[in-house]
Amino acid sequence: MAPASKSDDKGDKESGDKNDAGWAREHLPIVLVAALAVVTVLLYTAVYQVASRDTLSVTFLDVGQGDAALIEAPNGAQLLIDGGRGARVIRELGGAMPFWDRSIEVVLATHPDSDHIGGLVDVLRRYSVAALVRSGVASESGVDDALLGAAGAARVDVRELRAGDTLRLSPRVHFDILFPPVDPSGMDPNDASLVGRLVYGDTSFLFSGDAPKAVEEYLADIYTENLRSDVLKVGHHGSDTSTALAWIGWSSPEYAVISAGEDNSYGHPHADVVERLERFGIKVLETAKEGAITFESNGERVRLVR
Hints:
Elements: H1 6-52, E1 56-60, E2 69-72, E3 78-81, H2 88-96, E4 103-109, H3 114-117, H4 120-126, E5 128-134, H5 142-153, E6 157-160, E7 166-170, E8 173-179, E9 195-200, E10 203-207, H6 213-223, E11 231-233, H7 245-251, E12 255-258, H8 271-279, E13 283-286, H9 287-290, E14 293-297, E15 302-304
Parallel strand pairs: 3-4, 4-5, 5-6, 10-11, 11-12, 12-13
Antiparallel strand pairs: 1-2, 1-14, 2-3, 7-8, 8-9, 9-10, 14-15
């Protein structure tokens, strides 16, 4: 068979192009409809999941030797409490939040230790944050300066809260500040940790940063049964400087969560703290063993998701 001439090649190419163009014109409406259907399903799913949920979720992120917890109210409003030491919180948030969600309503820094706020610098740079809440305790920490600098660059509203103030995430979800009651300037950063209680309906979660036993006992004397919570975020990564008996007794949680790094140099959590919690029949969970730990509440009861 004689080889095809250049003119034959050109004719075949033109014929193929015409056939391809014809196929495209013929099937374009179908392709567009299919693509539109996929986009519609994705958007409907995203909107439906946000609009139809009546669930509060609280995820204690695995940031190693540090603290970070992401709270999402039924209406989608989010509160991030602390951010660990470095950029690990960004990866954790990527796993806990939908890929399209690039905003966080409120970031709360319990106190200016690097293992609590170091990661928040990257959070403020990568996410749209409406407000940064802090106790305002004086700090000479470079990471505290970096955090305030990032907040200023991103035009984030910086607020200092005191006992009696409330962050309202939705009509039924609020975070009540329990401590400090006065300007904490001059106090040790741990002593001035923001302590707060997250409430949704009949369920609640208690957070205390690195507050020591003296602060816990002071709050136990003041609030007594009003400290009752389903989940206790154990203070100071399970150090024996926190988790006083009165604090455990009045909060009376079903679960206690300890956020600490695996094989950390501090020996957290201390064995006597774990024993103290278990003596009260509390289920103790550790991010070092479990990874991120998520709870969900429908306002009536709390359940452990993972």
